[in-house]
Amino acid sequence: MKISTKGRYALRIMLDLAQNSKGEYIPLKDISSRQGITIKYMEQIVPMLTKAGLIRSLRGNNGGYMLSRQPEEYTIGEILRCAEGSLAPIACLEDETNQCPRSESCKTLAFWQGMRDVIYEYADGRTLKDLL
Amino acid sequence: MKISTKGRYALRIMLDLAQNSKGEYIPLKDISSRQGITIKYMEQIVPMLTKAGLIRSLRGNNGGYMLSRQPEEYTIGEILRCAEGSLAPIACLEDETNQCPRSESCKTLAFWQGMRDVIYEYADGRTLKDLL
DNA sequence: TATAATACCTACTAAAGAGGTATGAATTAA
DNA sequence: TTAATTCATACCTCTTTAGTAGGTATTATA
Predict the structure, then answer these.
(1) Could you tell me the pTM of the whole model?
(2) Strand C closer than 7 Å to the CB of B38?
(3) Which domains does chain B have, with CATH numbers?
(4) What does the H/E/C string look like for B101-124?
């Protein structure tokens, strides 16, 4: 029951961008020196955020990344789901295809749905700005 | 961010014991046929519950397992922690020894603490009886 | 137009965890 | 004595985690 480094680092990267944005693109080198995460590992995480439209990128000299919205317009939940894939505590709850054959009679399913709900409510009820 | 089979099965085993208890010890064979979990795999999970005192065991012929308390006296949280080890979403929150060197200035730590709290409140606020 | 700095892409790897099986020993009611 | 059971330990395969490595494409700037 752990959030992986992908999710944790993604959140720190987004926070770093929010804190250091001055309208310019910020290179991974800068984020790396502030956050102590290797550039090479971030290069694996950041494209997930770019493809989802959470951040904008510019290649080449003076390139880098910047937020594409205001900090208060990001929920933590959407950032984590982007990097982690899902925040559901069991696979049955992720989508229709993962439902197990016992779901009809499963006495634990409602419990897990409730747990998922409190996690989502919590994570989607907070924005990047709240963490600044 | 997933509960493993250990935790999920532990909960189902506890529920099965609660539903089928008639003051006698229930062998894994019976639980296996009802729950569709192999005896051999349960033999790995159940000792965690026994050692923690959540259930009582009797070896030998006519042996098996039974709850050591009433269903309403178990929180789901304690059952899951017993099998999963911890429900904390990040390792930093498990105990003192896991704290990372950035904890002082970490802007995400409070967020994770809050997430841990809602998970614990939810899981500790429900008992086995609630799931019956 | 050359250059340096950057994002982007694709492999690769070592270690750990997940999800089991297998074998056999100890215990106990009937 | 026997059959049924828990208990203990080792083993196995697959996937995930947490990175590292090397090279390519792009771009502002000198």
Answers:
(1) 0.95
(2) yes
(3) 5-131 (1.10.10.10)
(4) CCCCCCCCHHHHHHHHHHHHHHHH
Q: Which of B90, B105, B111, B110 is nearest to A19 (CA)?
A: B105
Q: Say how far apart CA A43 and CA A27 lie, in whole Å.
A: 11
Neighboring chain B residues of A8 at a CB cutoff of 8 Å: 90, 108
Which token pair is B65?
A: 């397992």
B102 backbone dihedrals φ, ψ, rounded to 5°: -90, 0
CA distances, B7 to each of A38, A48, B77, B81 (Å): 34, 30, 10, 8
**In angstroms, what separates the C-alpha of A77 from chain B's closest C-alpha?**
11
Which residue in B89, B110, B118 is closest to A2 by CB distance?
A: B89
DSSP string, A73-112: G-BHHHHHHHHHS---SSGGGT-GGG--TTTTT-SSHHHH
Name which of A76, A89, A131 is nearest B3 (Cβ-Cβ).
A89
Helix H segments across chain B?
5-20, 28-35, 39-51, 76-84, 109-124, 128-131
Nucleotide closest in space to A26 (CA vs C1'): C6
Residue A45 host element (H or E): helix A39-51
Cβ contacts below 8 Å, chain A against chain B, sum to: 82
What is the C-alpha to C-alpha distance for residues A80 and A83, in angstroms, rounded to an integer? 5
B19-50 pLDDT, tens digit each: 998 899 999 999 999 999 999 999 999 999 99
* Digit-coded pLDDT (tens) for A25-34: 999 999 999 9
Q: Protein B19 CA to nucleic acid D3 C1', in Å? A: 27
